[in-house]
Write a structure and sequence with these properties.
With 293 residues, this protein is α/β, with parallel strands linked by helices. 30% of the residues lie in helices and 11% in strands. It is globular and about 60 Å long.
Length: 293
């Protein structure tokens, strides 16, 4: 069943209402500040300078990814037990409403949204429009570190569809594989991070930034459906999506769900594929064709 927008996103007004209800004894709200960029991965100074009241800071590199063999990619999925320990440190209990945000239209906080959903926690939402939407609604920020009592949430991976490198290759050959990186990286004109430039042969270019409108909020379901159909993905069709390291592709997963698709994430993404010299690479606007092995 296609999820409703409110199953994935929450607006600043709805968040403020939920926070007020929590103060009156209602469902508890846990806020996670996941500001991050590849150029500035440590955004704790920005968090300390000002964040949504009660939010705790989450380190994407240290807490939303695992450190392992570089051939597995730059941001492999964290171990389930590690994510559970961190989620409890963030104060999360079963039944809470967890709201994640960043200051880039949820391009990066989508990773936390996806991971918690994958781990069986359905009560997680992205703040539509991110930190700018909260501040733009006239609501205040608070400075300093937030300390919370440990939570008791129980997590177990397996709720969201995940594919391996070989399964991503099969999607490129016989299904739909979407590349969520910026167009210049897809075309191979620029590659600032990973060892080879280009894209997986057969992949279609769907830059994550195009999921958002001019306010930095997710487009509506019909607009998103038209966007994906325009590149050749039929409505309701299963698709696989990847990006540079499996982070912003989670944003594509959310957009695809809103549009009525059944998406799967390739976590290793280009950062894994490009580190395997036996895997072919395509450049330019054309998807190319992945040879049958």
């Amino acid at each position: 069943m296609q999820p409703r927008r409110s199953d994935i996103l929450i607006g600043p007004d709805e968040l403020a209402d939920a926070m007020e209800s929590a103060r009156s004894g209602g469902r508890q709200v846990r806020l996670l500040d996941i500001r991050w960029t590849p150029a500035r991965p440590d955004r704790r100074p920005d968090y300390l300078a000002g964040h949504i009241p009660t939010a705790v800071y989450v380190d994407l590199d240290a807490q939303l990814a695992n450190v392992g063999d570089p051939r597995d990619g730059r941001h492999p999925l964290p171990l389930p037990e590690r994510l559970q320990a961190d989620a409890r440190a963030w104060g999360i209990d079963d039944g809470d409403l967890v709201v994640v945000y960043d200051d880039h239209g949820n391009l990066f906080s989508a990773r936390a949204w996806w991971l918690l959903r994958h781990a069986g926690f359905d009560g997680v939402r992205m703040l539509d429009g991110g930190l700018q939407a909260w501040s733009g609604s006239g609501r205040p920020l608070e400075a300093g570190e937030v300390r919370v009592a440990p939570g008791s949430v129980s997590l177990a991976f397996g709720r969201m569809a995940v594919v391996s490198m070989d399964e991503a290759a099969e999607a490129a050959r016989a299904g739909v594989l979407l590349d969520a990186r910026a167009g210049e990286r897809y075309r191979g004109e620029s590659e600032p991070i990973d060892p080879r430039a280009g894209h997986i042969p057969g992949a279609l270019s769907t830059p994550t930034s195009e999921n958002l409108d001019e306010r930095g909020r997710f487009r509506d379901a019909k607009e998103l459906r038209r966007r994906f159909e325009a590149v050749g993905a039929s409505s309701g069709e299963s698709v696989v999506t990847y990006c540079g390291s499996g982070v912003t592709a989670a944003h594509n997963v959310a957009a695809l769900l809103l549009a009525g698709y059944q998406p799967a994430l390739y976590p290793g993404s280009w950062s894994q594929w490009s580190r395997h010299p036996d895997r072919p690479v395509a450049v330019g606007d054309a998807p190319g064709v992945l040879p049958v092995e």
